[in-house]
Amino acid sequence: MYNENALNKISRDHRWIGVTFFLDLINGLSLTFKYMFSRSVTMQYPDREKWVPYPRHRGHHVLRRDENGENKCVACELCAKICPCNCITVVPYEDENGKRRPLVYDVDMARCLYCGLCEDSCPEEAIALGSVFEYSSYTSEELVVGRDSLLEMDGKTEQPGSVVKARYLPSAQSTVEAQESSGYDWWRFIHRKD
Fold first, then answer.
1. CA-wise closest residue to 48 among 152, 159, 183
2. Is 85 labeled as ligand-binding?
């Protein structure tokens, strides 16, 4: 019924596929074995070390100020409209000078996707995603951050992409104090295929 010569020819022509996938498997396993038999790298977080994110890291939201120290936001609500998860609430008002400002600017961090669309859509560049990634809460109500808190948040870090000396301060807020004067690049511990 079937031509055996044709089937043998097809299997011989497609043998390279199996050889290629087997070589890829060997390459992947060689990297795994390098990690298995090398010295492990453990970051002493938060007691002694802290990772400082790269500039492209999208962390906690930040409202920026202009050169006069006023909120740059004009409450145009573009960030709230473009947000795919509807986590931004903006209520505009006009101040005594006739400038439009946000009366309410809330960001629900529990719902946020950290996609950066709010940052891209802002015509005044008033909102940005900073480098802060260490925030948590026991209730979701505490993760709704208001306008004044967003104005006080830090932006991007000065020494990005490194591990710096730090110490854990156990208190009511449980903060980590970092010394950004010295640090090392943690990518040096990553094995690469030569």
1. 183
2. no
Which tens digits make up the pLDDT trace of 22-72?
Answer: 888 888 888 888 888 877 777 677 777 777 777 788 888 999 999 998 899
- For the chain, what's the residue count? 194
pTM for this predicted structure: 0.66
Which amino acid appears at position 165 of this protein?
K
- Mention every residue, 6+ apart, whose C-beta is less than 8 A from residue 48: 165, 166, 167
To the question of whether residue 87 is assigned a binding role by annotation, the answer is no
Hey, CA dihedral for 37, 190, 45, 48, is it positive or negative? positive
For 124, the token pair is 């005044």
pLDDT tens digits for range 125-174: 999 998 888 888 889 899 999 999 999 887 776 666 677 777 767 665 55
Q: Which two tokens stand for residue 187?
A: 């990518």
